[in-house]
């Protein structure tokens, strides 16, 4: 038997990612997206790895997937079956690099037909019930260039909030509208409200579209939205809800008389669990269906090994409404019927990331475990589950993957906290090892039963990896989720320190060689921890928050998130905001700190890292600041492959120096080594 190799940062280049599993209306076939990394050549001739993807098709009863799209460049995504099952629509960035709408006629075969050529591209495609037209979202065609003199004027005039969004950049003045394209005809815009539109969903009779938009200008910067109904023939729309909170994924009842959706009424602000609601097509108050259900209807379990879309729109069938919810570190399937949420998945089922359901209640879904990347599964109406396709099975069989060990502990106030530890590769009883306490983002998310490439790389490098779900995370009930609200750096800090206390009692942990790291909220907590204790030998903060005051005005979510999570507007209570800002305590930071941040991060803007780095440098504290160009908040999960590899290598280098005694690489040597790793892997 061949010796198993270890996970490396560059193992990312070998992974294949599947997403957006869409089962045909008759339940016989499944279309999905497969993404991989391959060499590309830029216009300047530079070779580098980049993502590619294609639409795949597999029989629901098993077999080998068939590749359906073969674009020379770009990525194909978002497969959507026509209601009669004869066609497959999808989105592709081939050729011009802008996402356009294409349709494959499966009966006739041949090349896909391109239906749109809009400058701002398309998103959220949805077939009309007669299979002869599609609705989609677009900002339309870009304005033609003006005269040479006028084109020199490139300033931005901003009159809306938000005016930027992570992963998108600065928003265009054009709003996202609903468009319609009849097969064989030119697309046309069918809405014109001065707000962004989303989530179009056809009524069963094809006469109306339910969609989501902000209802009033004063709410545009919040998550409060409304569902509208558009009479397509008349071009008129009417509001069905009253801006209780966020609204997602409208789903029609089979008889067309009501619409279910996912949302919440902000009873605990941003920390409220997503729930199942319903409103009549005729109008009236929306009412909560999932009364008393304690878990959010969302997939909130973190993984750095997913690429693509993972839809979780409910499906309304004659026996109830099917949906997903996260409970106890695992995303599971549920059916709402008779006023009750019935859990459908076995307790040890893989954690579901996304799904779709046929008319005969067969379900295609993607799911993973802590030692298996996302794979494609088939669920029959009788409740049986079958693994259909695992593109990484052979790779995983060749690499040493460590099974996380679950533990739980009581925090300072008796609250039960769940956690896991991955022991170092080659673990030997009686030896002591360095360890890393990894803190998740959110804060309303969770670690759990999903694969983490980075954790396996750290374990292969000789670290024990400890990760927990402190208060504020999802999957443990509404009260647990709301406990962190307006208390960042409070009891959540005590939860994490209790985890460190517990780890120090394990005989294999070297308490003098413990590190701490995290991203986003985890970056905030890392900053908070090292400004309040010196128990960790080194730290790494990623896409962090250091100053709650400036975060409010510079983050794309700053106004609604900051006001709710931090407790008001900063100018109304400056002391309150600064009391929980790590930058206020920077003089107390003595732990060597690696700062990783993306230049185009609009969620936690790079100025947060700049403030922290500048202060530490002025104070002559040990700090290194690494900035990633062209990247946003999602660098660790979907950034450029070389940047993702480099990010992990910087982490290994930093902790290798401070926890394992290795020499710290100079910046110029490090850049050469990362580039060399890519070249040598070819």
Automatic annotation (TrEMBL):
Organism per entry: Herpetosiphon gulosus
Lineage, opening ranks: Bacteria, Bacillati, Chloroflexota, Chloroflexia, Herpetosiphonales
All copies of domain Peptidase S9 prolyl oligopeptidase catalytic, residue ranges: 450-661
PANTHER family the UniProt entry points to: DIPEPTIDYL PEPTIDASE FAMILY MEMBER 6, SERINE PEPTIDASE S9 FAMILY MEMBER
Protein's UniProt keywords contain Cytoplasm: no
Top-level taxonomic group: Bacteria
Name assigned to this protein: Dipeptidyl-peptidase 5
InterPro entries: 6-blade_b-propeller_TolB-like (IPR011042), AB_hydrolase_fold (IPR029058), Peptidase_S9_cat (IPR001375), WD40 (IPR011659)
Alphabetical keyword list: Hydrolase, Protease, Serine protease
